[in-house]
Design a protein that fits this description.
It is found in: Membrane. By secondary structure, the chain is of the alpha+beta class. The chain has 7 domains: 69 residues, Alpha-Beta Plaits (2-Layer Sandwich); 152 residues, Alpha-Beta Plaits; 152 residues, no CATH class; 63 residues, Distorted Sandwich (Calcium-transporting ATPase, cytoplasmic transduction domain A), CATH 2.70.150; 147 residues, no CATH class; 130 residues, HAD superfamily/HAD-like (Rossmann fold, 3-Layer(aba) Sandwich); 114 residues, Calcium-transporting ATPase, cytoplasmic domain N, CATH 3.40.1110. It has 33 helices and 39 strands. Strands 25-37-36-35-26-33-34 form a 7-stranded mixed beta sheet, sandwiched between helices. A hairpin with a 5-residue loop joins β11 and β12. α18 runs parallel beside α33, α19 runs antiparallel to α31 and α22 packs antiparallel against α23. The longest helix is centred in the first third of the chain and has 35 residues. The two termini are 42 Å apart.
């Protein structure tokens, strides 16, 4: 049995107490595991525990060993750092520190002061709910008004600078920000205020606190009803605060979950109003969807307003000259200007300052915070065109010299930009379809069975599924969805779990069988006891995982962020160079007057080129190139049973050179069965099996369970086993054992009847001083050469028998291995099993490189050996003993049926327990980053091709120019092209490995 990860392998601490150093030396001698923990207690001399925290920080910018040494020196100089190590190849720092002396923000600042970028890697193993310890909360905020990557950088910078904020990530594609903050230092209202002070719209969507609920209250019709609702809430014990929005009818309640539950709160409001009020729990994801719809609706209104106001302006410019009566009306002088000029000025002023107000507001916010974005360029370009036209009119009225006006340029420019933003909003909504589909899997309501004090069923009631509590007994009728994770307490039925696990075959659910919320009950009626609700359910964790991945940034995006941060000043500079270049050249007579427009001048001629450059070079598409593709890819992966934990993991997988497989439970089915049992003494076979089963009954190892099951069947004890209960509580035939202990990687030992029993491998026997006779060794060798594991049994220091245990290979194992070879990836097997068994299994699946008899820490070392030349290594495993290797690998892939700890340590989770998904994960990564590179071509291609045209480079020879309105259309088209390109990933079909092992597309 592999030891638990809750035991931490201590690293050397300079200047520590001798007791601590002695513990370290002892741990270093036992190098079975690489232990992972955030915090552990060390006893000080006075008996008071000294609490240390361990964090991992992702560092950007390291290029050589000198860089990593520089970071290590900066960390070592901090008072409170116990130990630190910096991995150059992984771009990570592992820091052990005393939180009473040092804060996480100070560690980050030290790294940044050394010249590098630092980001704390969140670790969801801190608490059961995945929330950081102590008073640290994670809040998800909606951020409105962002238009490009420069806005994202501005908001992230403001949030990260706030006191108490440990981490902040902002996603342009979803208009969301995720902030990890210390609630004792800063509140969510402070964060919202900071977002709004920066010039954006901010609101909290949800957080990992469990004492807040948002309800929609129907039936509140007037002020009297509102006061009655407030009085009802005031009288409910446990209600701390509440806020009722009279327009949306949404009620936010902050309550003490130990005093009142969410269901009691809803019941209290309804009963207190005499059932006049109908209360419904608001799903945060549904609220997000409605916000997206509201944003697209608002953008559509602006677009249609701009379009219909622009039509008359274009009509007057293009069509009216060919219609004499209308043209004569436009030429009618009304005061100092012509009627046509008055109409254009009025219409375009509405477009410029009412429809286009959002661009001015956003541009002012950006400039106020010392940043620049797309809105600055749009405001600059449209203002130049509009105010020039106004000045031209005023100058003409004053002097009688009428220059041409360009009101239609400003109007069309705003219209095309709004068209691009509207199409972009619609397309971005499609990228989050994966989240919406996952949310829709969960049913809206549930049937709660009501029981009296003695447990007798008295009735049932329909409740909101979000109000289910642990311990509730729920009735699931055929054809409906299971409302929450739980266990069957009555009934029998088949359940379709394909939407969660990917397995198409229905699964039989009987007494004590676990069920997953969101799966469909097919046949019989089930009574299910809810065990996990809310964020702890499997479906919620999948949604959270996909959401976190979509929030993350792939390393390739840093290039786009950097370019976006300097792009606007560069574009403005290019525009000024273009304008002055044409203007000065015209004044100096470098080009003929015939090039000027009718009644035009050098200033107007140069200004149009300058405006076109400003508009065509907007960097908004650049900021969308990576996040939209990552969002779609993570959604597609989830629908194919592959959960991806972040953009960095998605990017690394495309470069995988080695894939290291664990054997048991990964290449094999993990369902070990005893194939043979041989006794080498006079002991009866039944007595031998009883001894072995009694020794293994206390072990959780798969081999131990297989031995107990085999012995039970031998004795004809066919009563069903109950998970979680020791066998000797069910079966009187097992003998009582004492002094039980599991020896990691070797076996178990205990005492039965005062005599020592050893069950394990050769190492356990030899280290315990028990000799292995030649004939026994030969028998074990035969087992191992036939891919069976030989388990030796010693009683009273005498070897008495051997069990041969077989673990069948997964049917797809050999096909997947050959498929990886076809993709140019080298498969390797690393296992703790003996060499002969390992080689037999490797030979059967086609793996050439085998590492056997490797302890858990050795697996991680083997991975580091392959990483020495810079190769990207993936690890596929399922057990607790695989988690150090999964954490050490560049890309960790956990089989979904494996342990929770293995899944936490991995970058990918293969939900279907199918090895073909290893190929799917790598192939999806390659396809995604091919798409991202294409997105960059779309994002930059328009600029590279169109900027020279917009600047008039080809005008002297070809008389080709790009009017500002056309430049606006191209700019809008670039954003839409990028998002639509990413959406094409939704058509992804995973590779199908045929019998001839040609990787084809279904």
């Amino acid at each position: 049995m592999a030891p638990s990860l809750r035991d931490l392998q201590l690293t050397r601490v300079g200047g520590g107490a001798s007791k601590l150093q002695g513990a370290q030396q002892q741990q270093q001698q036992e190098d079975e595991d690489v232990r992972l923990l955030d915090a552990y207690d060390v006893e000080t001399g006075g008996g008071q525990p000294l609490l240390f925290h361990r964090i991992q920080i992702r560092i950007t910018g390291m290029t050589c060993a000198a860089c990593s040494n520089s970071v290590e020196s900066a960390l070592a100089a901090l008072n409170g750092v116990v130990s630190s190590s910096v991995a150059l190849l992984q771009n990570k720092a592992d820091v052990l520190f005393d939180p009473s002396l040092l804060q996480v923000s100070q560690i980050k600042e030290a790294i940044e002061d050394a010249g590098f970028e630092a980001e704390v890697i969140p670790d969801s193993t801190n608490t059961k709910s995945g929330a950081p310890p102590n008073d640290t909360l994670i809040g998800q905020f909606s951020i409105g008004g962002m238009t490009c990557a420069a806005c994202v950088n501005s908001v992230e910078g403001i949030l990260r600078a706030l006191p108490g904020v440990n981490r902040a990530v902002v996603a342009l594609a979803t208009s969301l920000g995720e902030v990890e903050y210390d609630s004792t230092i800063i509140s969510k209202d402070d964060i919202v205020n900071a977002i709004e002070d920066a010039g954006f719209e901010g609101s909290l969507i949800q957080s990992n606190t469990q004492d807040k609920i948002t309800l929609n209250v129907a039936g509140v019709l007037n002020e009297l009803d509102t006061r009655f609702l407030e009085g009802t809430l005031t009288n409910l014990k446990g209600v701390r605060q509440f806020f009722f929005d009279r327009i949306s009818r949404d009620l936010e309640v902050l309550f003490d979950p130990e005093v009142i539950t969410s269901r009691s709160l809803v019941d209290g409001i309804q009963e207190g109003s005499g059932e006049k009020f109908t209360v419904r729990v608001c799903n945060p994801y549904t609220r997000m969807t409605s916000k997206d719809l509201e944003e697209s609706t608002k953008m559509f209104r602006l677009l249609t307003s701009s379009f219909f106001l622009s039509l008359p302006v274009i009509f007057m410019r293009v069509v009216c000259p060919s219609i004499p009566p209308l043209y004569a009306l436009l030429l009618w002088r009304c005061g100092p200007f012509l009627m046509g000029d008055w109409l254009k000025w009025a219409l375009v002023s509405v477009i410029q300052f009412f429809v286009g107000k959002r661009f001015y507001v956003a541009a002012w916010r950006a400039l106020k915070n010392g940043s620049t974005n797309m809105d600055v360029l749009v405001a600059l370009g449209t203002s130049a065109s509009y105010f020039y036209s106004v000045c031209a009119l005023l100058y003409g009225a004053a002097t009688g010299f009428w220059s041409p006006t360009y009101f239609e340029t400003s109007a069309m420019l705003i219209t095309f930009v709004l068209l691009g933003k509207y199409l972009e909003t619609l397309a971005k909504g499609k990228t989050s379809d994966a989240i919406k589909k996952l949310v829709e899997l969960s049913p809206a309501t549930a049937l709660l069975l009501i029981k009296d004090e003695v447990g007798k069923l008295t009735g049932e009631r329909e409740i909101d599924a979000l109000l289910i509590q642990p311990g509730d007994i729920l009735k699931v009728v055929p054809g409906t969805k299971v409302p929450a994770d739980g266990v069957v307490v009555w009934g029998s039925s088949y359940v379709n779990e394909s939407m969660v696990t990917g397995e198409s075959a229905p699964v039989l659910k009987e007494l004590n069988a676990p069920v997953i919320g969101g799966t469909i009950n097919l046949h019989g009626v089930l009574h299910v006891e809810a065990t996990r609700i809310g964020s702890n359910t499997v479906l919620s964790q999948i949604i959270s995982l996909v959401e976190t991945a979509q929030m993350s940034k792939a390393p390739i995006q840093k290039f786009a962020d950097f370019v976006a941060s300097i792009f606007v000043p560069v574009v403005v500079g290019m525009s000024l160079i273009t304008f002055f270049g044409w203007y000065i050249s015209g004044v100096l007579g470098a080009y003929p007057v015939e090039w000027l427009p009718e009644n035009g001048n050098y200033f107007v001629f140069s200004l149009m080129f300058g405006i076109s450059v400003v508009v065509i070079a907007c960097p908004c598409a650049l900021g969308l190139a990576t996040p939209t593709a990552v969002m779609v890819a993570t959604g597609v992966g989830a629908s194919n049973g592959v959960l991806i934990k972040g953009g960095d993991a998605l990017e690394r997988a495309q470069s995988v050179k080695y894939v290291i497989f664990d054997k048991t439970g990964t290449l094999t089915q993990g369902k070990a069965t005893v194939a043979t049992a041989k006794v080498f003494t006079e002991m009866e076979r039944g007595e031998f099996l009883t001894l072995v089963a009694s020794a293994e009954a206390s072990s959780e190892h798969p081999l131990a369970k297989a031995i107990v099951e085999y012995a039970r069947h031998f004795h004809f004890f066919d009563e069903p086993s109950i998970p979680g209960l020791p066998q000797n509580s069910l079966s009187g035939w097992l003998l009582d054992s004492s002094n039980f202990s599991a020896v990691p990687g070797k076996g178990v030992q205990c005492s039965i009847g005062g005599k020592r029993i050893l069950v394990g491998n050769r190492k356990l026997m030899l280290e315990s001083g028990i000799s292995i006779p030649t004939h026994v060794e030969n028998f074990v060798v035969e087992l191992e050469e036939s891919a069976k594991t030989g388990v030796l049994v010693a009683h009273d220091d005498v070897l008495i028998g051997v069990l041969g245990i077989a673990d069948p290979l997964k049917r797809e194992a050999s096909v997947v291995i050959e498929g990886l070879v076809k993709m140019g990836i080298k498969p390797i097997m690393v296992t703790g099993d003996n060499w002969r068994t390992a080689k037999a299994v490797a030979r059967e699946v086609g793996i050439q490189d085998v590492r056997a008899e490797i302890l858990p820490a050795g697996k991680a070392e083997a991975i580091r050996m392959f990483q020495k030349d810079g190769s990207v290594v993936a690890m596929v495993g399922d057990g607790i003993n695989d988690s150090p290797a999964l954490a050490a690998a560049d890309v960790g892939m956990a089989i979904g049926a494996g342990t929770d700890i293995a899944i936490e340590a991995a970058d990918y989770v293969l939900m279907r327990n199918n090895l073909e998904d290893v190929i799917t994960a790598i192939d999806l990564s390659r396809k995604t980053f091919t798409r991202i590179r294409l997105n960059y071509v779309f994002a930059m291609g328009y600029n590279v091709v169109a900027i020279p045209i917009a600047a008039g480079t080809f005008f002297p020879w070809l008389r080709i120019s790009l009017p500002p309105w056309a430049a606006g259309a191209c700019m809008a088209l670039s954003s839409v092209s990028v998002v639509c390109s990413s959406l094409l990933l939704r058509r992804y079909r995973k590779p199908r490995l045929t019998t001839i092992l040609e990787i084809t597309v279904e």
